[in-house]
Write a structure and sequence with these properties.
By secondary structure, the protein is an alpha/beta fold. It folds into two domains: 2-160 and 349-398, Quinone Oxidoreductase, Chain A, domain 1 (Alpha-Beta Complex), CATH 3.90.180; 170-317, Rossmann fold (3-Layer(aba) Sandwich), CATH 3.40.50. Helix content is 24%, strand content 23%. The strands form four sheets. Strands 3, 4, 5, 8, 9, 16, 17 and 18 form an eight-stranded mixed beta sheet that branches. α5 links the parallel β10 and β11. The longest helix has 17 residues, at 161-177. 48% of the residues are buried.
Length: 399
């Protein structure tokens, strides 16, 4: 089969690799669509490598090349002999992480027992930790990791169940953290209710957080979004932001304080991964605010900037992945929640899928700089829906 192989930093080659074999409890999926994520870009550029050996040391790409891609939808092409609840032709999204439930390991580790499967003591992850990801024609996964679609949802949209699942998990983590301030009903008193929210970054994750706050959690307070890209600011307004700010145009802290009666926000979602946004935290939050550190990256700033942040005693929450426990049939509960929200139209992802790539050969260009284009919000490699056509298409009708 064909696959995108990251053989060195900044270099992907489309190669012929062995098609994975299917175990008795597995399914072989023909890939339909794969979202291109910021994590893929970090690994591609050499800023991150989560493939480590038994001693915790990073395994260089020159020693073990990787197949990236972890936002995956596909069709069941083959089912193992013990699989009873999926059939050839079923359309699914997958949880790319392998944990105690995937491996049918008993007893479960403490993390799987608590619903934090992304931190499973035995965790490995396709497309992230060295296991082959979705930027290929096929992938083999435990059947319990596949969640069946219940609608005719476009498979490119379905693939974004993974990033929405991460947003759901992060929101659940904030609720569990029980900081001074909480969203609406969980606050307990008016003084401890979140009245002002700032989201830094209106990329896919920021836009998903925005919608989840408004449409699922029912947050009706002031919602501010900081984003330098004009097109993304327009999308933020469309999805319910009250105020959109350009952080490159003046003092972000001063602008936020102006809109929050001088006090700053009770809840900050840092979804940009930009160092300059991290440096602004102390100027935009109230004392004892909750700060969700969702974005990754933050290069170019030294740790001394944390001094003023720590002085305000915020509750810092640092979630990763889409943990959330398991359904009765062993399937990942958070992925199922995310898929249903998209299928039901409660969360909209189509408006920010700006680029659809129809060939594995397009991935190198996207990761090498295409994601930085002014008209780029989210790219999806849609192998089946575009019939193998090479080259990105820009969907302006959705903007």
């Amino acid at each position: 089969m064909k696959a995108c192989v990251l053989c060195d930093v900044g270099r992907i080659e489309v190669r012929d690799v062995a098609q994975p074999r299917v175990g008795a409890r597995d399914v072989l999926l023909r890939i339909s669509a794969v979202g291109i994520c910021g994590t893929d870009a970090h690994i591609f550029s050499g800023h991150a490598n989560y493939n480590t050996d038994a001693s915790g040391k990073t395994v260089p790409l020159s020693v073990q090349p990787q197949i990236l891609g972890h936002e995956i939808s596909g069709e069941v092409f083959e089912a193992g002999g013990e699989v009873r609840d999926l059939a050839v032709g079923d359309r699914v999204v997958i949880d790319q992480g392998l944990n105690c439930v995937s491996a049918r390991r008993k007893p479960w580790c403490e993390y799987c027992l608590s619903g934090d499967s992304h931190q499973c003591a035995f965790y490995t992850e396709h497309g992230i930790t060295g296991l082959p990801g979705g930027l290929a024609e096929f992938i083999a996964m435990p059947a319990s990791n596949a969640v069946r679609l219940t609608s005719d949802l476009d498979m490119s949209e379905a693939a974004l169940s993974e990033p929405l699942g991460c947003v759901i998990h992060s929101s659940d983590a904030v609720a569990r953290a029980r900081g001074r301030f909480a969203i609406d009903g969980a606050a307990g008193s008016a003084e401890r209710r979140v009245r002002h929210v700032l989201i830094c970054g209106a990329g896919p994750s920021g836009l998903l957080h925005l919608q989840y706050l408004r449409r699922v959690l029912g947050y009706d307070g002031l919602l501010i979004v900081s984003e330098p890209n004009e097109m993304k600011r327009e999308l933020a307004t469309r999805f319910g932001a009250d105020v959109v700010l350009d952080p490159s145009n003046g003092d972000l802290g001063a602008a936020v304080r102006e809109h929050t009666e001088g006090g700053g926000v009770e809840y900050l979602i840092e979804a940009s991964g930009q160092g300059r946004a991290f440096a602004a935290i102390s100027s935009v939050i109230r004392k004892q605010a909750t700060v969700l550190l969702y974005g990754h990256g933050h290069a170019g700033f030294e740790l001394s900037l944390l001094n003023n942040v720590m002085f305000k005693e915020p509750t810092l929450v640092t979630p990763v992945g889409a943990s959330g426990g398991f359904e009765k049939d062993g399937r990942p509960a958070t992925y199922a929640r995310a898929l249903r929200l998209i299928e039901q139209g409660k969360i909209s992802v189509a408006p920010f899928i700006t680029h659809r790539f129809g060939s594995l050969g397009d991935v190198q260009g996207a990761l090498a700089g295409g994601m930085n284009a002014a008209d780029y919000v989210k790219g999806v490699v849609a192998l089946q829906s575009l019939g193998g056509h090479s080259g990105a298409t820009l969907d302006r009708s959705l903007l």
